[in-house]
Input
Amino acid sequence: MAKPLEVDQQWLDRIVEQVNGLQYGSVNITVHDGRIVQIDRTERTRYDSPSHKQSQHDGQGQSKPRETAHAQAESLRAVQ
Output
């Protein structure tokens, strides 16, 4: 049977601190032996419209098919 989770006010405050202001993302809480040992916060940034440069490149502003990671890396190198 699993140990009951030990959570004190300090950990609750830490969790609230990580969640506050998070618009898109996740908070991952790691527990070992019934105790919180780590909190990871991953924040995402979403862009609703393509950049001006990308719209011109695509011709009519339509998004192009998803590129592979290798093709994206090549295009980034070309910009440098």
Observations:
- The CA atoms of residues 2 and 34 lie 7 Å apart.
- The radius of gyration is 21 Å.
